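Researcher: Good morning. I'm working through a list of sequences from a screen, and I'd like to move beyond sequence-only analysis. For each chain I'm collecting a predicted structure so we can compare shapes side by side. This is the next one on the list. No need for commentary yet; just the structure.
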Amino acid sequence: MNLYEVVHRRRDTRAEFTGAEIPSDVLRRVLTAAHAAPSVGLSQPWDFVLVRDESIRRAFRDHVQAERSVFSAQLDHERAEVFSRIKVEGVMESTLGIVVTYDPDRGSPAVLGRHAIADAGLYSVCLAIQNLWLAATEEGLGVGWVSFYREDVLRRLLDIPTRVRPVAWLCVGPVRSLPDTPDLERHGWRNRLPLDDVLHYDSFGRRN
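Model: Good morning. C-alpha cells for this chain:
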C-alpha cells in the first residue's frame, strides 16, 4: 500500500483480532515508527508500556465495561439501542495492549516551542500514536484505541507515576480483515463529514 492507501485503510479495530502472535521484528518496526514521530522541542515525551499479562488485561477490560455502562445510562432509548450493537474494546481478543503515556517533564525545564501552547507535548504523543497506527496497518495489524477508562484507574493498574498521563490503551494484533466501513458508520452512530463541510478560507466560517 502507498501512504494514501494506508491512511484510508486504517480502522479502529475491535472484533477482528485473531489473538495470533506478532513477530518480534514487526512489533519493533511499528514501535520504531511511533518513536520517529515529530515532537515539540524534540522532547519525545512518550513511553510505550507493552501489556501481555492476562490478569492486568482482564482487570482493565472489566473497568472498560463498567465505564461503558456509565455512558450507556446517559443515552436516550434510541441512541442506547444503537450503542448496544457497538463493541468498544478488544482488550482480551487482541495480542497485546500498548499503553502510550505523556511525560510533561521530558525535556524540561525549557521545552522549545511549548512555552505558549502547554498542550503541544500532548499533541506530540498523539502524533506518535498515529505513526504507530499507520505502521501497524501497513504491517497487516489492527489497532483499537480504547477510551472508556478513567486515567487514575489505569495509572494505578500499571504503576504509572503521578506526573505521567496515560493517553491511550491501544489493542494491537493480527486481524482476520479490516472492515471496509468504520464500525460507527456501519452501526449508524455517525457518518463521516464531507471535506468541504470543514473547510474555511482566510477566516473561520468563510466557505469560499
